[in-house]
Amino acid sequence: MAGLAVWWFFSGVELAPRTVKVGVYDYPPYQARDPKTGEMTGYYTELLDALAQSQNLRFEYVDTSFDDYFKDIPKGAPYVMGMPIVINAERERQYFSYSWPCGEVDLILYRRADDGFIGGIGDLVDKRVGAMEGIETTICMRMMKEGKIKAVDSIESSEKLHRALLDGEVDAIVCDQGVSLYFQQLHPGKIVPVEMVFYRQYEGFPIQRRQTWLRDRINDGLRELMSNGVYSRVYRKYFPVKEREQGDECELLRRGGEDDDETSRLPMLEIDENHNSKRI
């Protein structure tokens, strides 16, 4: 046993996975707790499963909120890392570092299918708009100050956001395309995309600054998963290719490309050390 310990010390090889605590909040289809089992599910959860296997890590999930990221991650308690959020230079200066990009956000304006009075952003001057806490609310508040929106409701979860739209509590919502595609499948024919509000922002895992070893491992793992096809497989599982149907009111269902090549609809997320990106 002593000889094994000496070998481990000098080789630098970890015999057991290193545990990392990750702050999570419900944001389907990206991450959510299964109400029956309590286990985390979703796209980013499955991506973390692959990263754990690749990088000899074990992730423990701690329930929290988006807002708590900004006080908890800098101090490293009760978790040192969060689920991916939009990469923002100001956040990086003030709060935490980021992994390389591992997701993308296209913010779209949506309306109820039975409300034909909203044809674009120009029709929101007398409307109440719902938005998720975070960049969506920030952008909508800016539009309200510019006189483009009458009122903004900041809503804490994607499920409540879409429920507010369907129940008529808000006239329209601004939401990430991937999230709304999930809720459109749950409520077919009831939610309609109208117009792009904000085009392609990248997301990364927020990580406590001192955890440079963790950031390096996450980045190494992302590079491996993007190279060996696992990233693409997981992505397509949660965001399958969707052909544009006749009568669709906008082209926004095409993710990452404008032609009919399947590979063009993957996220544009093959990246290098300078955050340069190209289509994968």
Write the layout of secondary structure elements.
Layout: H1 2-11, E1 18-24, E2 32-33, E3 40-41, H2 43-55, E4 57-63, H3 69-75, E5 81-82, E6 85-86, H4 89-94, E7 97-98, E8 103-112, E9 128-132, H5 135-145, E10 151-155, H6 158-166, E11 172-176, H7 177-186, E12 191-204, E13 206-207, H8 212-228, H9 230-238, E14 270-271, E15 277-278
Parallel strand pairs: 1-4, 1-5, 9-10, 9-11
Antiparallel strand pairs: 2-3, 6-12, 7-13, 8-11, 8-12, 14-15
Helix pairs in contact: 2-8, 2-9
Features of the shown structure:
single chain; 280 residues; alpha/beta; six-stranded mixed sheet; 9 helices; 33% helix; globular; disordered C terminus
Describe it:
The protein is of the alpha/beta class and 280 residues long. Helix content is 33%, strand content 25%. It is built from 9 helices and 15 strands. The protein has helices at 2-11, 43-55, 69-75, 89-94, 135-145, 158-166, 177-186, 212-228, 230-238, and strands spanning 18-24, 32-33, 40-41, 57-63, 81-82, 85-86, 97-98, 103-112, 128-132, 151-155, 172-176, 191-204, 206-207, 270-271, 277-278. A 6-stranded mixed sheet has the order 6-12-8-11-9-10, sandwiched between helices. The chain has a 3-stranded parallel sheet with strand order 4-1-5, covered by helices on one side. The chain has a two-stranded antiparallel sheet with strand order 2-3. Helix 2 crosses helix 8 and helix 2 runs antiparallel to helix 9. The protein is globular and about 60 Å long. Residues 4-9, 243-266 and 270-280 have low confidence and may be disordered.
